[in-house]
Amino acid sequence: LRTHSLLSLFLQAKMSRPVQARRLEGIDKNIWVEFVKLAATYSTVNLGQGFPDFPPPDFLKEAFVKALSGENHMLHQYTRAFGHPPLVKILAQFFGKLLARDLDPMTNVMVTVGAYQALFCCFQAFVDEGDEVIIIEPFFDCYELMVKMAGGTPVFVPLRPKAPKDGKLMSSADWQLDPAELASKFSKRTKAIVLNSPNNPLGKVFSRGELELIADLCVKHDVLCISDEVYEWLVYDGKEHIRIASLQGMWDRTVIIGSAGKTFSATGWKVGWTVGPNRLLQHLRTVHQNSVYHCATVAQEAVAQGFQREFERYGKPDSYFVQLSKELQQKRDWLVQSLDAVGMKPIVPEGTYFLVADISEFKSDVPDVPNTDEPYDTRFAKWMVKNKGLAAIPLSAFYCGAHKNNYNHFIRFCFAKEEATLKAANDILQKWKLEKISP
Ligand code: PMP
């Protein structure tokens, strides 16, 4: 009898009802989990995920060490929930200068756990069931999933490539919005548009004309702009990063999102921020308050010191922001040359850590399989890491399900890497090319 009652107790205790909340339906698979694992298992050279393999600048590391082991032991305790006061103060000063506007550190700036949490706060704070959010393809994949998790409907509009002239290499600037197509996506249901300039994965830096087109539509349809500017300092060839919030009518409806990870080459610190009008930020504070509430104090203190240093050196040759973009431009050029030499045609990026390359000429190595759901570039990238030890990310990962197969012959490389890493990638590509010529 005792065994029997124990067994029935056990069966009762085991849950049979579905445990997953409806909002997670369809968003439980994520390509990063798979590709990060593949890179860890097989890669000898990892140009996949977007992080530098070189250290952050000494002044930043020193600021962290000082914050950690200095006399102010209160830096080990909670600080202000919406941002450590020294950090929000310097961010308000810095962005106030960039935007030519007086910013209140307490109401116009909020610190987050990386730009990722800033994005999450935006979608949770602004998107209701039934709201539409316009996303420009290719896009950082979490936008789609975060919109869905908030109950909204993502509406996609692609950047369309135009063939470059005179046999030149394609540039990320050749990928453009069709103005009529973009306008057709705005409706009464549109709550927000997500802008990511400089863009991950293409490296496109939106021009003033393109930003004005988006801004005019936002104003006309009374739409918010979530402006992900994490690569704001990483622009090349003298290009200018223009902040959409600085355009007519846009400050009031834009949240700017930034990342100390990308700004100071310290992605593991996970310090990010939002800048915008209080009427928008007050709602981000509500989400932040009821989810994460607070970010690591020591990291915020060090980032505040980093910004203070950069504020004093703004635009000068010894500014880290100036130096980093120069160094990355050189790394971009190396990778462009390596890929071009083997016929994996690069699309020259105007900004970011990333470069997208055309794999069409390598299709004989990884033949197409008809009638499979997996886009060609995904199988190619998996094959490449397993057989060549080189990790990259398929471009189709940055498109919605319906559009993945329209752009399935490109892969994305991250070039924010040490010279030795880029050289090792070049060696793999050269050897591969030779094998193709004389198998
Ligand atoms: N936005 C974009 C476009 C990114 O590429 C990334 C990081 N890959 C993030 C946001 C997230 O930044 P963080 O690491 O600061 O959370």
TrEMBL record:
Q: What EC number(s) would the UniProt record show?
A: 2.6.1.64, 2.6.1.7, 4.4.1.13
> Can you cite a GO biological process for this protein?
kynurenine metabolic process
Gene Ontology cellular-component annotations: cytosol; mitochondrion
Pathway assignment reads: Amino-acid degradation; L-kynurenine degradation; kynurenate from L-kynurenine: step 1/2
Q: Which domain of life is it from?
A: Eukaryota
The record's section on Gene3D superfamilies has:
Aspartate Aminotransferase, domain 1, Type I PLP-dependent aspartate aminotransferase-like (Major domain)
Q: Name one GO molecular function term.
A: pyridoxal phosphate binding
- The record places domain Aminotransferase class I/classII large at 45-425
Sorted alphabetically, the keyword list is: Aminotransferase, Cytoplasm, Lyase, Pyridoxal phosphate, Transferase
List the subcellular locations.
Cytoplasm, Cytosol
Where is this chain primarily localised? Answer: cytoplasm
Is Lyase there in the keyword field? yes
SUPFAM superfamilies reported for this sequence: PLP-dependent transferases (SSF53383)
Q: Which InterPro entries match?
A: Aminotransferase_I/II_large, Kynurenine-oxoglutarate_AT, PyrdxlP-dep_Trfase, PyrdxlP-dep_Trfase_major, PyrdxlP-dep_Trfase_small
Substrates-to-products reaction catalysed: L-kynurenine + 2-oxoglutarate = kynurenate + L-glutamate + H2O; 3-phenylpyruvate + L-glutamine = 2-oxoglutaramate + L-phenylalanine; an S-substituted L-cysteine + H2O = a thiol + pyruvate + NH4(+)
Q: Which cofactor does it need?
A: pyridoxal 5'-phosphate
Q: In which family does this protein belong, per the annotation?
A: Belongs to the class-I pyridoxal-phosphate-dependent aminotransferase family.
- UniProt-listed PANTHER family: FI04487P (PTHR43807), KYNURENINE--OXOGLUTARATE TRANSAMINASE 1 (PTHR43807:SF14)
What assembly does the database describe for this protein?
Homodimer.
Q: What is this protein called?
A: Kynurenine--oxoglutarate transaminase 1
**Organism placement in taxonomy:** Eukaryota, Metazoa, Chordata, Craniata, Vertebrata
Protein encoded by which gene: Kyat1
